[in-house]
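Consortium newsletter contribution from the modelling node. Members have asked for a concrete example of what our holo predictions look like. Here is one, prepared for the '5'-O-(N-(L-prolyl)-sulfamoyl)adenosine complex that several groups have been discussing at recent meetings.
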Amino acid sequence: MLLTRFFLPVLKENPKEAEIISHIYMLRAGMIQQSASGIYSWLPLGKIVLEKITEICRQEMIKSGANEILMPTLQSAEIWKESGRYEDYGKEMLRIKDRNNRNLLYGPTNEELVTEIFRTHVKSYKELPLNLFHIQWKFRDELRPRFGVMRGREFLMKDAYSFDVDYKSSIDSYNKMFMAYMQLFKKMGLKAIPMKADTGPIGGDLSHEFIIIADTGESEVYVEKELLNFEGSFASINYNDDLQEEVNKFTSFYAATEEKHNPSNISDVNNNLIKARGIEVGHIFHFGQKYSLPMKANISDTIGNNIPVFMGSYGVGLSRLVGAVIEANHDDKGIIWPKEITPWDYNIINLKSGDDECEKICLNLYKIMNKNSLKVLYDDTDERAGTKLARADLIGLPYQIIIGPKGIKDQLYDVKFRKSGDISRLSYDELLNFVQTN
Ligand code: P5A
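And here is the predicted structure:
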């Protein structure tokens, strides 16, 4: 991509409304623009990253055996009355009337709607287990939207819903999602820690939040130190296996969000316990027949009884994750994208626009790299070197290839590693070799 052809409205000053670093950098790097409180437009750079995060999540869901569907943002109030949540959800739910005076709402979550789809079509245990997921915008009229995309009112969620014939198999489905979450956060370059959590308005008896430790996080958490560095052994997870043992490896540590923290349970781990703040990037729930019972989503089980299906729901905050990744990966100059989700790997920077030789080398490199399907952004603008270098640090691509008159003279070109700040001087051939083998 040529930077002159890319819409990247970078801000020079720190925006006053932003309190935390991810919000500041997302605005400054031209990733998002506020449209109303807690509601954002995603500009090209933000959209690319959001898409990458979404795709990692989608692929892991598919791998785990879930089926992708797409439910609408607007839902009929009727099904929420059936489940009993229409009144309970309170002011967080945005209620709308259509021209015929029918009650609609902008979905804050989809347990009801997916249960309606399920009950229309599935009648027998033979069609189970089933997991339906979708990736769709949600709306929650949060009392205090803040921190940009971290606590928005409109936000993108991946939500999955499992259906099983009995308690035991629905726990298997829960475990599958638990491990899928460990995988997908890892694939985003993140260390997410599973913690016992409250079930709130979703309900149920079993729930885990997936938390990224960060000082700016909104959740207070209590976690055994060892778990912070515990990797598990799930390098090649097979979703057809019984995953209880893998899950137990994580849940055997003490880790709980503030609401679930119970000091009387932890006398033996007290010394190793730390109190920290974290960002909730995922939340999974097992709630059995909470929705299927009132909504009459019944199936015939193996002995011919008609029973309400067992369910769980599983959410990933995709738009929140963009902010969370930045909270976990930045320095005082800007974002440092993990390689897994960086918008491009390389940033070619021409320090002296208008200089024929600089331009020639940059363009050559750019063409060769494109030909080799490398992901590269070429800063071909005519701005000052200082402006370009500062912008490159702000947008945080892993490798900067910096071409200026001095490099041309010495025939040695700088490759700066964004994360460490280290610079390697390479000959043209070494440079080509570097980008092709890196
Ligand atoms: C699980 C999927 C649910 O809604 N129903 C369907 C269940 N869970 S949840 O915990 O309420 O939300 C899932 C994840 O969505 C993100 N999230 C938000 N992101 C940005 N702004 C918000 N206001 C917001 N609210 C929730 C979180 O990552 C959460 O874990």
